[in-house]
Hints:
Oligomer: single chain
Shape: rod-shaped
Number of strands: 8
Strand content: 15-25%
Distance between the termini: 120 Å
Amino acid sequence: MNLKEYFDIKIDYNEIMYRSIKVLFIIIGSIIIYYIVSLIIRRVFSLSLKSIRLKHTAIIRRRQKTLEKIILSLWRYFVYFVSLLIILSTVGVDIQTILAGAGILGVVVAVGSQNLLKDFLEGFFNVFEDNLSVGDYVDVDDVEGNIIDIGLRNIKIKSFTGEVHIIPNSKIGHIINYSLDDGKALVDVIIDYDSDLDQTLKVIKASLIKSKEQNINILTEPNILGINELHKLGYEVRIMCQTVKETHWAVQRYLRQELMKAFKDENINIGMNQIKIKGEKRLS
Length: 284
């Protein structure tokens, strides 16, 4: 091709403009359809939750929230894929060739994306086996907090101080889920050896009964298990009770607070390191 023939090539600007506008409308239409269907999915789950009148509504709510997140994630990937095919078809790409080669491409992608496939499988089984749900308070490999999102590739955990940890599903190892069952509060108090044991236990017992009446998160009457250990500073009394799930930390703090008030009212000393210095009285 010589220079004259090169400049004689005519560019159909109308066709380019037409296809560009068509692609723009496809993108806008895909976004609108995505949000409408997403809204319908959320609405369906919301209505199904309102119809539930069971004891374990909170558990069901978390499970349905998790399922909702996964369905929305699948829907998002589906919209991306279909929209891309339509756009390619609009600009003149033969998508039948792409679809025909999808099988071979899938094998290549599977070989090169084993971690991605593992993320999908691990995420599916964690949800299917009811190990994790949105809203659960968990400890995953020393990352502690509430699960705010579960996707096909990763989970997001928001810690108490606000950080969001993103963990790939394939990297999830040891899981501690505090939301699956009722909690257990365990409190140890060290009492000075000079304090009378029987009187101390009576004061502790009275304080625990009062705490049970005033705190709705305590499910069972706190039980004094006995003298757990003898320390240099005093004897250790162990207390235990069942709590509403995810509240055992708050209950432990509450019990310690009420016990300290009772000890102060009854002049019972907790164990502490006391140094006594004896010497001759100085003469003035």
